[in-house]
TrEMBL record, chain A:
The keyword Transmembrane applies. Part of the high-affinity ATP-driven potassium transport (or Kdp) system, which catalyzes the hydrolysis of ATP coupled with the electrogenic transport of potassium into the cytoplasm. This subunit binds the extracellular potassium ions and delivers the ions to the membrane domain of KdpB through an intramembrane tunnel. It is found in: Cell membrane. The system is composed of three essential subunits: KdpA, KdpB and KdpC. GO terms for molecular function: hydrolase activity; P-type potassium transmembrane transporter activity; potassium ion binding. It comes from Bradyrhizobium nanningense. Belongs to the KdpA family. NCBIfam families: kdpA (TIGR00680). It comes from the Bacteria. The keyword tRNA-binding does not apply. GO terms for cellular component: plasma membrane. This is Potassium-transporting ATPase potassium-binding subunit.
From TrEMBL, chain B:
It is a single-pass membrane protein. This is Potassium-transporting ATPase KdpC subunit. Signal peptide: none annotated. It comes from Bradyrhizobium nanningense. GO terms for molecular function: ATP binding; P-type potassium transmembrane transporter activity.
């Protein structure tokens, strides 16, 4: 580890914190339906969209209607992606002549993109036409992100409102999020990325003759416009197979830094939105602090482990850390930092191959996802995931002192705690359940690229990533098989919707409750004690659930590596 | 519920048209106008032919060129389409080796490469990036140490004084952005083009 490495990490944190407040202010206005500086330009478009789609923007929805709207929207999105992938050979914008994508791969990819997972069983440049990248993937990058933020807004409204039956209007939330938040940032961001060297063209792949006279086919395409929303919306599905490690998908140290910022920035700002809407910004800062503590701990471990290298490298006298599967322009620190960020949020873009990380360095991304991606988390999803843990922590605190727990003026009762537990328990069921099936099913075992405990970790990581809707991978695993395409899709489905429905049920039940003013006996939720309690609850639940599986994978691999065992 | 069906369909189509077509196509037009070189892939021409992209690494095996990092990219096997064969720096199918820290295959490969490089230049430590594969398999860069390591071989193959080659390396070394972001690096293709120009003089 170096000083300059830590400076890069600190600079990142400082910029994120600095962006949180202004962006939180802006987003609060957008979702409150107030005027912003973009209104003169966008308001006519917005009104036009409502008119042709028959949306009455003043009519709010009950939580159940809101949830049904979310589900209908997902079904539609699924059909669009699946259809475009199956038909891409006959559709325009296909200069390379990519054929139709297979049924199971199309199914997996469609599920993957509507759930904001963006798991890559497809190899972008070798499978997909430009139309699929744009209409199939870019569009769903926007919509799954907008949906996540809309859901978080609904849950936040549950906390901030009192004695009402509605939590907002999904169609309005999605439209406003897309038009006022995602699109404007992406337009500027795309141009920045092209300036840094990212291609943005509809032309055919380029045939080059190298200096030594060999032929090199260079894949290009409308990359920048997709990467902008891929990062901002914590989607993470790459244009290219190597994702953000590909020089065209992440050309410079600066593009890398801005990409890392854009993964976290909306998620972090939502904590501020929460604070503003419940009437005390310190409530938001307390939640961001919980995230910050867990984040920095993860960064420290991964950076240390990767800088240390592996015993194989050390035995050969190779210093400078574990550079297998990393790019020179990013080096150890920016690769480690990116890995922790992308898994803390539910992004899943990678700028280095997680499969080649050291055992402990690769364990942190795994843990980040298993904790529920609540460290900033996916846009929206991280916020509602974190609020579920807060509900549990408040419940535990209430048990300790024997009072009915309350949070930001709302009593937390049996219904909320049950729903929070349901959402939290779904994750281990999918992750551990499917991993257990895969490691005894011979065809699934054959997909492992590495032998020994590392192969087990590849499978564990795959289901963790799918259920957590992350999308990063220990990419050695051959995931594009019938078994994995279907089981991973099921993990993504359950991981998304069994979080959404309970979270919305909580939103509805909270919105209907009266708001009670804080009294002397109220547990203060803006201080260090609260932050420590939430961190503790997250680590205990995550630890109890996943430690045995981690012991069989990365932990035993680390011990084996130190003992000089190779597989 | 039924009154949510119309918005579900119409809104989806409208937003698909905006974000899936209007946005990428408009960005393509603007990007090609403002940054035509980058938008096309930062291609480098020489004598009217495209020799590569400034951002994409290519394979160098000749002693008179600086070599890039090992690449783990592959291509479909021409004789059997379900299998793949190694194809270093295949810029139409990016990817890494995905070998883990306790992989025997990785340990064997590293040892073989380190031995080869030690034989080539016994006077310097082998830089780690010169024996490890990159994440994309298309890394255009090597570390300045990895370039210095190859100076004796390149100088000998081209009958140039080592000092002159070292100067070229120094001239093609990029530092951290603002002294802070990223890592010092050398673009291998740019360095080799500079080398060819120097030799032509």
């Amino acid at each position: 580890m170096t000083m300059i490495g830590w400076f890069q990490i600190i600079l990142f944190c400082v910029v994120i914190v600095a962006l949180t407040k202004p962006l939180g202010w802006y987003m609060t206005r957008v979702f409150g339906g107030e005027r912003t500086f973009l209104s003169p330009l966008l308001r006519p478009i917005e009104a036009g969209i409502y008119r042709i789609s028959g949306v009455d923007e003043r009519r709010e929805q009950h939580w159940l209607t809101y949830t049904i709207a979310v589900l209908l929207f997902h079904v539609g999105g699924f059909l669009v992606i699946y259809g475009v992938m199956r038909l891409q050979a006959a559709l325009p914008f296909n200069p390379v002549g990519q054929g139709a994508v297979a049924e199971d791969l199309s199914f997996n990819t469609a599920m993957s993109f509507i759930t904001n997972t963006n798991w890559q069983n497809y190899g972008g440049e070798s499978t997909l036409s430009y139309l699929t990248q744009m209409v199939g993937l870019t569009h769903q990058n926007f919509l799954s992100a907008a949906t996540g933020i809309a859901l978080a807004m609904a849950l936040i409204r549950g906390f901030s409102r009192a004695s009402v039956r509605t939590v907002g209007n999904f169609w309005v939330d999605v439209t406003r999020c897309t038009l006022y938040v995602l699109l404007p940032i992406c337009v500027v961001y795309t141009l920045f990325l092209v300036w840094q060297g990212m291609p943005q063209t509809l032309g055919d792949y380029v045939e080059a003759t190298t200096l030594e006279g060999a032929k090199q086919t260079i894949a290009v395409g409308p990359v920048a416009s997709q990467v902008a929303i891929k990062m901002l919306g914590t989607n993470g599905g790459g244009f290219f197979n190597a994702n953000a490690a590909h020089p065209f998908e992440n050309p410079t140290a600066l593009s890398n830094f801005v990409q890392m910022l854009s993964i976290f920035t909306l998620g972090a700002a939502l904590t501020n939105v929460f604070g503003r809407m419940v009437g005390n910004q310190r409530q938001g800062w307390a939640i961001l602090s919980v995230m910050g503590v867990l984040f920095l701990a993860g960064v420290a471990v991964t950076y240390w482990a990767e800088a240390n290298g592996t015993s194989t490298l050390q035995a050969l006298g190779l210093t400078g850390g574990n550079m297998e599967g990393k790019e020179v322009r990013f080096g150890i620190v920016a690769s480690s930092l990116f890995a922790v960020i992308t898994t803390a949020a539910s992004c899943g873009a990678v700028n280095a191959m997680h499969d080649s990380f050291t055992a402990l360095g690769g364990m942190i991304p795994l843990i980040n996802i298993e904790l529920g991606e609540i460290i900033v988390g996916g846009v929206g999803a991280g916020m509602y995931g974190m609020l579920l843990f807060v509900i549990l922590a408040i419940f535990v605190a209430g048990l300790m002192v024997g009072r009915t727990p309350e949070y930001v003026g709302k009593k937390i009762e049996a219904r909320e705690v049950k729903m929070a537990m349901l959402a939290i328990l779904v994750l281990p069921l999918m992750i551990l359940g499917w991993t257990a099936v895969a490691v005894v099913y011979p065809a699934a075992v054959a997909s492992m690229a590495n032998a020994g405990p590392h192969g087990f970790t590849e499978v564990l990581y795959a289901y963790t990533s799918a259920a957590g809707n992350n999308g990063s991978a220990f990419a050695g695993l051959t995931g594009n098989t019938f078994f994995y395409n279907l089981t991973l899709a099921s993990a993504m489905f359950v991981g998304r919707f069994f979080m959404i429905v309970p979270a919305m049920a909580i939103a509805g039940s909270l919105a209907a409750k009266k708001s009670i003013p804080p009294s002397l006996g109220t547990f203060p939720t803006t201080g260090g004690l609260f932050i420590g309690l939430v961190v503790g609850v997250i680590l205990i639940i995550g630890g109890l659930t996943f430690f045995p599986a981690l012991a069989l994978g990365p932990i035993v691999e680390h011990l084996a590596m130190n003992a000089g065992n190779l597989f | 519920m039924f009154r949510e069906i119309r918005p579900a369909i119409v809104l989806l189509l409208v937003l698909t048209a905006i974000t899936g077509l209007a946005y990428p196509l408009a960005m393509t037009a603007i990007a090609e106008a403002l940054f035509p070189v980058q938008a096309q892939g930062s291609l480098i021409g020489k004598d009217g032919k495209v020799v590569g992209s400034a951002l994409i690494g290519q394979e160098f095996k000749d002693d008179k060129y600086f070599h890039g990092r090992p690449s783990a990219t592959s291509a479909p096997d021409p004789s059997e389409s379900t299998k793949t064969v190694p194809a270093p720096y295949n810029a139409a199918n990016s990817g890494g080796s995905n070998l883990g820290p306790t992989s025997k295959a990785l340990a064997d490969r590293l040892k073989e490469d380190v031995d080869k490089l030690k034989a080539e230049n016994p006077n310097a430590d082998v830089p780690v990036d010169l024996v490890t594969t990159s994440a994309s398999g298309l890394d255009p860069n090597i570390s300045p140490e990895a370039a210095q390591f190859q100076v004796p071989r390149v100088a000998k193959a081209r009958n140039l004084p080592e000092e002159a080659v070292k100067q070229l390396v120094a001239a093609n070394t990029e530092g951290r952005l603002l002294g802070l972001l990223g890592e010092p690096r050398v673009n291998v293709l740019a360095l080799n083009l500079a080398l060819d120009r120097a030799a032509a003089k």
